[in-house]
Amino acid sequence: MASALALSPTLLPLSRHRRSIFSPAAQIPLLSSIPRPHLLRGIVSLPLVPSGRVLWRVRAESTKQEREPMVPPFNVLITGSTKGIGLAFAKEFLKAGDNVVVCSRSAERVELTIKQLTEEFGEKHVWGTVCDVRKGEDVKALITFARDKLNYIDIWINNAGSNAYSYKPLAETADDDLMEVVTTNTIGVMICCREAINMMLNQPRGGHIFNIDGAGSDGRPTPRFAAYGATKQSVVHLTKSLQAELQMQDVKNVMVHNLSPGMVTTDLLMSGANTKQAKFFINILAEPPDVVAEYLVPSIRSVPSRQSMRPTYIRFLTGLKAYSQIFSRLAFGARRNRYVIED
Fold first, then answer.
1. Label partner for 42 (CA 20 to 30 A): which of 8, 76, 228, 325?
2. Of the listed 152, 167, 228, 295, which one is catalytic?
């Protein structure tokens, strides 16, 4: 499902032109009382022994093992990849010659997607299975499936997300919709990160995990989909925390990154195009999934190609691009009624 939703005018204060609309908020300085990460590298736990001494356990498996260089074709796994931006990502990776595992909660959509992609790219490059990312047993089964088909995964993209197709004030939101949003966007990403890290730690080539952000990830308000915005900000925080954990443990073959597709014209986004403000910004800033994927996939593939293990934040809609398009609209009327008729 899509991971970027419509923005309200409150999300775009023109006076803050130096900050990307979709970039995370500035990092809060660490308190001086918190030990610096480089002093804690390798520490997994500090259990107390009877004598009162601290027993330091060092996790050294990933540092002792020589990491094999990552060279294409890459093995790629994308959650929520039977439609929208996830499916567009799958097509672009396949066009580049990579091997792809797609998944979805719907067995019917998985079957239709595999049929479509195999007809275009061949049976030896794409596989699919059912997976509900909210369930740990499903994600474990997904990894077993991926290993069976490809032996290892180089690139894992956490794309599955939900807004329960609900745009309304939080006070009017049903319990089921809240649970759908939070369990998919927060718990689901956590489970997938946990299982993907554990898998990649034992791979000679290591691996890269990309968590997709969305509206709200930079801390700006998301009225009418407050729960969604809160979960997307949590994704950015989760990614930073995992990066710090991997550094503390001196892991050198696994890295977690953020990926920002901006506003994508998926069913999820367009279902909220029912206000004047939403229509305005969708017409100005949104792009079709294939356009976004065509831009982002080469950037994603360049990370393992460079043999880089540094964290990255790859964005499609930068602040400069967004404000340029807004200016063109205000000055010349560009992009009016591009996707939806404005009032």
1. 76
2. 228
